[in-house]
Amino acid sequence: MHLVPISHAAISCDVRAAAKFLAVEELLCARRITDGVRGGEMMPNSPLSKLRILVVEDEGLIALNLERMLCHFGCEVIGPISEVGDIIDAVRKHCPDGALLDVNLRGRKVFDVLPELTSFGVPFVLISGYDDPTLFPAAFRDLPRIAKPFDESALHRVCLDFIGSARPI
Asked: How far is it, in rounded angstroms, from Cα 155 to Cα 138?
């Protein structure tokens, strides 16, 4: 067995990161509502306020960050959903106003459920670490998407353009 020396700085950094993650998770857990929908503090007069957004993301920290940003926009967050097989059930159960879908969930692509999701009339934006549309099947290359990593202003813009614009007046 070969032991690798670890610096104290690295350990304290890891402990701080873990503590910060737990603090965020505790804050988000405190906001949870029993049906799986969460809301939070929001931008005043946000055009996205009260929109119910389904978050489909299998990376915990990314899902938490998405939830934080969406809550800031005034959205109610449904999820996160981390399995392709759970997406349509969540749409049926919660009737979201829109969805943000990571393309790759634990090695499975979401493309198989997109036609059914579209049939529900739920506007959605794909999230991917790959911004090259040629990596997507031809039928899905022109769908709205945002590339990881993204910041709050980019997410706000894409939500306004593709989810908020579908909101009935």
From this structure: 24
